[in-house]
Amino acid sequence: MELVVATRNQDKLKEISALLRGLPLEVVSLDNFRNVPEVIENGRTLEANAKKKAVHVSRFLGRFVVADDSGLEIEALGKEPGVHSARFSGKGATYASNNKKVLKLLNAVPRAKRTAVFRCVIAVADRGKMVGLAEGRCRGRIGFRPIGRTGFGYDPIFVPYGYKKTFAQLGLKKKNRISHRSRALIEARKIIKRYVLTHSTLLRVNFLEQPC
Ligand code: ITT
C-alpha cells in the first residue's frame, strides 16, 4: 500500500521515512505527483494546519496521506515562533535567518529562561476524510549560538532536556529516538497500522507527551 507524505520539505521526509520503516507501506512524497495545489497553512494551530494539509492532499490525490505540521514554541517569546516556525524571519526565510532571529530576540535572556518545546502534529487522512491525529513533544532549551551540522531548521540551537548537545550535534539516529516527530510517529504508526488492517475511517485522537 502506498502512503503519501504531504510535504515538500526533504528534511522532514527523510525523518518520517526512517521512522515508518518496517510498515508494509511504500512511502512517497508530493514530489512524486504533478500539479498538487499548494495548501495555504493559515490555521491558528499546528493541528488545524496538519488536518488541512492531510485532508486537502488526500482528497486531491484520492490516496492515503500523512501530513506533519511542526514548530518550536519558546517560552520567553510567548510560544513564538510556533505555527510561524517555517517563515519566522519573513518572506524568503532560511533556516539560518530564522535561527539568527531567535538568538537575537533571546539576546538578553539567561539560560534558565530559554526553555522551549518542539511540537509535531501528524494528521492521517484517506481520500478526503480524517483518519486520525497524533502529537509528539520534545522539551529543551535554546542555546546561545548555532552548533552542529546534522538535521535541519532549529536543530542547531535546540538542546533537548537531559543532553548537553544540540539536535544538530546529536545526529539523526539519536534525534529520531527522542524527537517530537518520532513521538508523534509512534502514535501515527498505530493509527496507520489499525487503519490498514481494518480500513475503517474512525477518527481517533492520540496524544503523547514525555519529557526528553
Ligand atoms: P511542509 O509544510 O511542506 O511539510 P515546512 O518546512 O513548511 O514543510 P512546517 O510548516 O511544519 O513545514 O514548518 C515547520 C518548520 O519548523 C520547519 O521549516 C523548521 O524550520 C521547523 N522545524 C520543524 N521540525 C523541526 C525539527 O525536527 N528540527 C528543526 N526544526 C524543525
Question: Would you kindly provide a written description of the structure presented here, covering whatever features stand out?
Answer:
The chain is an alpha/beta fold. The protein has one domain: Maf protein (Alpha-Beta Complex), CATH 3.90.950.10. Helices cover 32% and strands 25% of the residues. Strands 1, 2, 3, 4, 5, 6, 7 and 8 form an eight-stranded mixed sheet that branches. The radius of gyration is 17 Å and the shape is globular. 40% of the residues are buried. Residues 200-212 have low confidence and may be disordered. Bound molecules: inosine 5'-triphosphate (ITT). Inosine 5'-triphosphate binds next to β3 and α3.
